[in-house]
Amino acid sequence: MRRLGLKLAVLSLTAAFSFSTAHKAEARHRGVAHASAHGHASAHHASSRRLAYRYAGGHVIQCVAFAKSNSEIALRGNAADWWYHAAGVYARGASPEAGSVLNFRATRRMPLGHVAVVTDVVNSRTIVIDQSHWAQRGISRNVQVVDVSPSNDWSAVRVQLNGRSGTFGSIYPTYGFIYARAADGRDTMMASAAPASRRGATRSLPSALSHPFGSTEVAEAPAGADSLGVDAPDRNLR
Known about the structure:
The protein is of the alpha+beta class. The protein contains five helices and eight strands, in the order αααβββββββαβα. The protein has a six-stranded antiparallel barrel with strand order 2-3-4-5-6-7. Strand 6 (156-160) and strand 7 form a beta hairpin. The termini are far apart. Keywords: Signal. It comes from Ameyamaea chiangmaiensis. Residues 194-238 are annotated as: Disordered. It holds the Pfam family CHAP.
């Protein structure tokens, strides 16, 4: 009888030890699985953030590629050369139209020029554009541009700063607008319209240029900063 009791006690201890070991193993498995899942989720979110940064930061879409994919105009080369390349292919002019491309000239801080897609014409002095690789380097939409040229020919413009209504940056020279239709022999070739690289120097603007509407607030560059550097980056790829 005593031997039977001893056997039962040994069996009870063995069962208890086995249960404890299995419970600990299961807990470890849950912990590893949780850590793995958490790590996978963290890696996924980090990857998503990196991908979002690539697109938001403008490291993927340059202004030329964006303009071609968001308009019916397909030209090659740097943005500063688009006006020249459009000759005889697309109509050009000095009046904005929705769907046209505003072609910026090259400047010291923007040696390869810039192109932006016109999405709306507000009035004879104000348009709305979509663009890529400007101040924020990524895609920016619904950006206002104002014409500050004395003749209202859109040869000199200011671009809205960082989506802030009523604030505009430095004066930038432009060639004009490239329209999404075939050239018909009547397109306007503006004065000195050859690309800056072919002329050897960029055109300087009269210092007296200012926006014709006195109510427009113009943002000033920080003291000691290059005013052109506030609006557009010094980029080498287009």
